[in-house]
Amino acid sequence: MGPDVTWYLVVAALLFSIGTLGVLLRRSPLIVLLSLEIMLNSANLALISFSRLHGDHDGQIFALAVMAVAASEVVVGLGLIVAVARRKLVLDVDRFRVLRG
Amino acid sequence: MIDAPKVDWLALSPTLALLAAAGVALLASVIGPAWFRRGFAAFVTFGGFVTAGVLAGFLFDRSPDAQPLLNESMTRDRWAALAAIVLAGAGALSVLVSWGETRRDHAGEYYALLAAAGAGMVFFVGASNLMTLFLGLEWFSLALYILCALDTHRATSLEAGLKYLIVGSFGSGILLFGSALVYGATGELGFAEIAAAGVTDDSLLLAGLAMIVAGLGFKASAAPFHMWTPDVYQGAPTSVTAFMSAATKVAALVLTLRVLTVAFPEQEHLWTVAVAVIAIVSLAVGNIAALVQRDVKRLLAYSSVSHAGFMLIAVAANSPLGGRALLYYLIPYSAMSIGSFAVVAARERELGAPVTLDNLGGFLWERPFLGASMWVFLLGLMGMPLTGGLVGKFYVFSAAYESGWWWLVVAGVIGTAISLYYYLRVLLAMWTRPEPTALRPVVAGGSPPRDPLLASAVFASFAVTIGSFFFVQPLIDLARDAADSLPF
Questions:
Q1: Which of A6, A31, B110, B136 has the fewest CB atoms within 10 Å around its CB?
Q2: Backbone angles phi, psi at A55, to 5 degrees
Q3: Tens digit of pLDDT for each residue in A58-95?
Q4: Which of A46, A51, A98 sits opposite B177 (nearest CB)?
């Protein structure tokens, strides 16, 4: 008998908050990308624990699909970061201000 | 003999046509000889969009009743089919706009990505399950991230791509976590099953619903989730901006209304208010921020934020009339949006510099056809008579009024009044000839070659903008048939 589903959910929510704060506060695009992955994986954890709770497999299949999506997102993200680095732009999201939001 | 599920190929055919076009264009631009790549990829992609549009037309004709597809993960109905027709039209016009863009490399891959993004959007509007929703969203978003950053020699393009990737993925992360919470509360992923589960006041479900609305808000570039819009619209290649401004908005709004009405009918009293608030914030932020812009692409980006607000008013109405108004409005809006960015693209190629209010001087007289079309597009975005923009706004307001949202109508009218100011500034800039005091240096090589494809895209957008005013009734009937397949 493992811990209750609430605990899994608490961990997932905690990971999601860490990821969100990372995206909002960190300045290196690499760390931002990492935080995005943490956000997606916190959702995966929630999906899998709910899937076990409900006793059906939909959530687990969803989590597998999300992993594939997360991987492709990292591919695009790292590709862009390499392209930026090659052009010797500063890797700091706060300094990306040719376009001011 | 295994017991395979029946696959309704006609219902998937628009997506498959675009996917095939993307595959062929990508292969050709990798293994084909260099001279052959760009032309072939553009031709195949254009063909893919036209085929997808025709197939979606068939689909519209042959699916009067909504049917579930692929183990209920997709829906075959007129709502998705009409949206797919609009998306295919937007894609085909964008191919025409893109042709004149001289790109040093990746000329073929550009078109392959455009077709892939279109395929993702057509898939996305048919989604009826939280998983297909997320996968469709990421499918077209990933293609768009790359398209934005494709001009790697321009720092702004890379910056736009990276910003879009970060903010877009942040939005999809929120959407995904919301989906997980809804799944946890109901034990279901399908939209109809979520509603059938009968969970009404569960805090997990409500938190999930809020996060799904926020995630879709990022894609529709509604305020306060619009921060990426001006930067990405400005930095991305203009032809990509044209496609994105029309197609992403169509896909995101059409699916927003579907997911809210099908999956969350019990929480109607909550999400209509949330959508109404987002609509008001979008109208305020979009219209006020546009007042101080001098870069025309940024100005149009803020105008697109305010239009997201207008269309969300139709979503908040949550009525058959609202669905009809949304789908009708998206038709002239897409045309006006693609058309205006196409004219900006033409001017940009002419100047070799970003288009601002200062270098538009006398454009109406220098290029009468493009200038006059731009006037029509902007008058349409204002909501002036003789353009579909007027009818669209009128339908949106009457839907809101019918559902008792009189304060949304007031907000919409105030928003329109503010918007007159910045649209008029552009119109005036194009009208006034610059002072002939100093000789302006001309870009080496004289004026750019004529671009009949871009001109034909502008003409088609012009025709749709005006035509949707004169042929309101047939279009409204189509939108009514489409909206009938949603449960209100």
A1: A6
A2: 70, 25
A3: 899 999 999 999 999 999 999 999 888 887 666 666 66
A4: A46
Distance from CA of B146 to the nearest CA of A (A): 7
Give the nearest partner residue to B162 out of A29, A50, A59, using CB atoms.
A29
Residue reference for tokens 């034909």: B456
Are A98 and B159 an interchain contact pair (Cβ–Cβ within 8 Å)?
Answer: yes
**B330-351 per-residue burial string, b: 16 or more CB within 10 A, e: under 16:** bbbbbbbbbbbbbbbbbbbbbe
Would the pTM of this model clear 0.90, i.e. be above it?
A: yes
In a domain, A76, yes or no: yes
User: Residue B158: which of A65, A80, A101 has the nearest Cβ?
Assistant: A80
**Where are the domains positioned within chain B?**
9-483
Answer yes or no: do A66 and B152 touch at CB < 8 A: no
Tally of domains within chain A: 1
Residue A80 contacts residue B152 (beta carbons within 8 Å): no
Estimate to the nearest angstrom the gap between the alpha carbon of B123 and the chain centroid: 15
Would you tell me how many other CB atoms lie within 10 Å of the CB of residue A94? 7
The reply to whether A18 falls in a domain is yes
What's the angle, vertex CA B351, arms to CA B345 and CA B354, rounded to 5?
60
B51-89 pLDDT per residue, tens: 999 999 999 988 888 888 877 788 888 999 999 999 999
> Between A12, A58, A76, which is nearest B189 by CB?
A58
Q: What is the ipTM metric for this complex?
A: 0.90
CB contact under 8 A, A62 and B231: no
Residue A80 lies in a domain: yes
| C-alpha B223 chain-centroid distance | 16
> CA B202 to CA B300: how far, in whole Å?
41
Interchain CB distance below 8 Å, B184 and A9:
yes
A23 vs B184: CB contact, 8 Å cut-off? no
A36: domain CATH number is: 1.10.287.3510
B130 vs A96: CB contact, 8 Å cut-off? no
